[in-house]
Amino acid sequence: MDSEILERLEILHTSGQISEQDKDRTIKAINYLENKLKIKVEKEMGGMFATHLAKALSRIACNEAIEESSEEAEVAVREHPEILREAEILFEDTLGIKDVPKGEINFIAMYMNLLLNS
């Protein structure tokens, strides 16, 4: 994880957009992706992933999670079901969050796929 991603997460936290827990969970998720799945989370795409994951975690904590997926996310998970499963594992096992709405999981899976192919 590059320093710009950490800086981005700190800005989100200090501006009140995400909690300390959301920031820590996002860092934990990035470490999991990089170490376990060998997905590099860096540059602009990595920053977008980190921001979207942190905001998703915040929405989930506030019971404001996105329930439905965009067409783009639906296509990504349909074409890469293995990435969808990894996103589910990320939320459930790595972050300890159960019953994450489909919209949030699919969106993060789409970003994971983009990171794999960037």
UniProtKB/TrEMBL annotation:
Organism: Biomaibacter acetigenes
Source domain of life: Bacteria
SUPFAM superfamilies associated with the record: PTS-regulatory domain, PRD (SSF63520)
Residue span(s) of domain PRD: 17-118
Membrane-spanning segments: none
Protein name: PRD domain-containing protein
Pfam families: PRD (PF00874)
UniProt-listed GO biological process terms: regulation of DNA-templated transcription
InterPro entries membership: PRD, PRD_sf
